[in-house]
Amino acid sequence: MNITEPKYPPKIIVTGDLIKSGLYICIPENINKSSAVPELRIYEVGARDGLQNESKFVPTDIKIELIHKLAAAGIKNIESASFVSPKWVEQMSDGTEVMKNLKRTSGVNYPVLIPNLKGYETAKKCNIEEIAIFPAGSEGFSQKNLNCSVEEGLKRFKLVADQAVKDGIRVRGYVSCVLGCPYDGPISPKTIARITEELFSMGCYEVSLGDTIGVGTAGSVRKLMKEIVAVTTPDKLALHFHDTYGQGLSNLLAGLEFGIKTVDSSISGLGGCPFARGASGNLATEDLVYFLYGLGVNTNVDLVKLVEAGRYISNFLAKPPASKVNLALGDRFKNHEDIIKMAACTV
Questions:
Q1: What is the pTM of this model?
Q2: Known catalytic residue: 273?
Q3: One of 126, 181, 204, 273 is an active-site residue; which one?
Q4: HEC assignment per residue over the chain
C-alpha cells in the first residue's frame, strides 16, 4: 500500500460544526475522497467477536440493528454471527435468527464464524456467502478454545473448508494467538507461517493473523510478517489486533509497511475472548478509520455514522465506548464532510 505523506505546512480548514465545537482534528487535506474503491479493506468483527465476551446478553434485534448501522456507515464486510455451540458461547446462540432476519444491503458481505461441519450445515440454511474458520496458533489455546490439538483442529476445519468450497462459499481463515498465548507464552513465527500455508491449501482466500491477547508490539509484528510474506503475498493477509496494551495502531502501522490491505476491527473497541485470559477489546473501528484518514487513506466510511453505531451498542451495554475517537468526537458533528475538511494540524 502506498501511503501518501501529508503536506506541510498544512492548510487549516475550519467550517460548520467544527467552529462551534472548538474541537480540532489532525486529518490531512490530501484524502482521496473521489476513489470509488477503498485503498484498505475494513473487516468489522464487532457484532460477533466484539459481543461474544459480553456478560449481558444482547437480544437479536439489537444485534441486527447494530449490523444495519454499520452497513449504513459504509462498512462493507461485517462478520455477523457465529455458529458455535450455545453451551460454550451463549451470546452467539441466536446466529440463525440474526442471519435470517437482518436486511442485507447490496454490496455488503455478511460472513459468519464456523467451528465444525455441524455448524456449517446450520449456517448454510441462512443464505450465507462467506464463512470463517479459526485454528489456533498454539497448543494451549487450541485445547481451551477448540478442545483439541492444533493438528486435530486443522483436520476438522479442512472438512468444513472442503465442503464450503464445493458449495461455492468463500472461506476465510483466522489464526489466533499469533504473537503470544495466555497458556504457552511466545509463539514462533515459523509455526504461524506453517498454519497460514495450510489454511491457503484448504482454499481460504484470505488469512487473518490475530493477536488474541494483545501482547504484540511493532517489533514482534515485523518479525512475524517477515516469516509470513515468505509463504504468501500481503494482499491475501489481514491483521487482527486486540488493544490490551494500547499497541493496536502502532502494530497496524508496522503491518502496513509490508503491504497489508485488510484490517479487522470492532466497533467501539468491543471484544475479548472467553477462552483467553487477559484479552481485552479489539482495535476500535472508529480509531482505525480516523487513523487511516490521517495517513491519507480513503475508507469510504462515514465517521459520524460510525460513532453513532458505537454509541448505540455502548449505550445498550451501559458502558462508555472503548474507542478514544468515539469519546473525543461524541455527538459534536452532524456532517462527516466537516471532519474530512479539517486539515492536518501542527503541534
A1: 0.87
A2: yes
A3: 273
A4: CCCCCCCCCCCCCCCCHHHHHCCCCCCCCCCCCCCCCCCCEEEECHHHHHCCCCCCCCCHHHHHHHHHHHHHCCCCEECCEECCCCCCCHHHCCHHHHHHHCCCCCCCECCEECCCHHHHHHHHCCCCCEEEECCECCHHHHHHHHCCCHHHHHHHHHHHHHHHHHHCCEEEEEEECCCCECCCECCCHHHHHHHHHHHHHCCCCEEEEEECCCCCCHHHHHHHHHHHCCCCCHHHEEEEEECCCCCHHHHHHHHHCCCCCEEEEEHHHCCCCCCCCCCCCECEHHHHHHHHHHCCCCCCCCHHHHHHHHHHHHHHHCCCCCCHHHHHHCCCCCCHHHHHCCCCCCC
